[in-house]
Amino acid sequence: MALPSRSTGPSDPSARRQVLRLERLLLVVLLTLAAAAWALVVWQSRVMGGAEDMGAGLTMGMAAPLFLLMWLAMMVAMMFPASAPMILAFAGSQARRRATGGPSTPTWLFVLPYLAVWTAFGAAGYGIAVVGDALVGDSMAAADAMSRAAGGLLVAAGVYQLTPLKHACLVRCRTPFMFMLRYWRDGRWGAVTMGLRHGLYCLGCCWLLFLLLLPLGVMNVGAMVAVAALVFAEKALPYGDTVGKVAAFGLIGYGLFALSWPNALPTVM
């Protein structure tokens, strides 16, 4: 198993420039896909009425295929910017191998398993939403219960931000080079297993934050922007770990407030 290294790579300056150009091109592609996904989500939220579409329930009136399609678009929109350093680290390692005549693996074999993890989580979320809709109905009491449940989720998400499991997952997401050193696997299947592992660590960081989108509305663009901003700050900014801890107390405080005054937290009910 040949591990990637920052110091190893093509000695030819033109080859190094080629690797750099490929990394920049991939970054442009990732950000373009994220922008297109944001545009699709905003358009769909306007078509459906967004979080103000009262009575649509946790599934927002969507059948499973449409729900999963929009969930995947949300993941591309919200997670590609935050995951770009990890994807670029993988692609750069493969490009350096290719430039030196070694075997390389296409980057999509790393990215697709990552998206598959989040899609599977979306399928689980849809199942939870269907059960939730069946249980709560559309009464005023159900709306109050939904707001309190959302408040409880906010508190849980804030507490989770402070747990060792969250920290362990975040460390692996924040340090692409160390992730590659520890979990590097050669070949196509190796890329798949690395993508799955990265997806699972990423899910371990953020699953409760994304679960919040069910009561707040999966097409609630404002909530999506807030979650995406927090995820990006945690994963990509120099003091992301501190940002996450500060956000934890904000989530807990807002959640406790919503538990006492349910109208303070608008939900899909």
Automatic annotation (TrEMBL):
InterPro entries in alphabetical order: PpoB2-like
Name of a matching Pfam family: PpoB2
Keywords: Membrane, Transmembrane, Transmembrane helix
Positions of transmembrane segments: 25-43, 63-88, 108-129, 149-168, 216-234, 246-264
Domain of life: Bacteria
Name listed for the protein in its UniProt record: Putative metal-binding membrane protein
Organism of this sequence: Saccharothrix variisporea
Upper taxonomic lineage: Bacteria, Bacillati, Actinomycetota, Actinomycetes, Pseudonocardiales
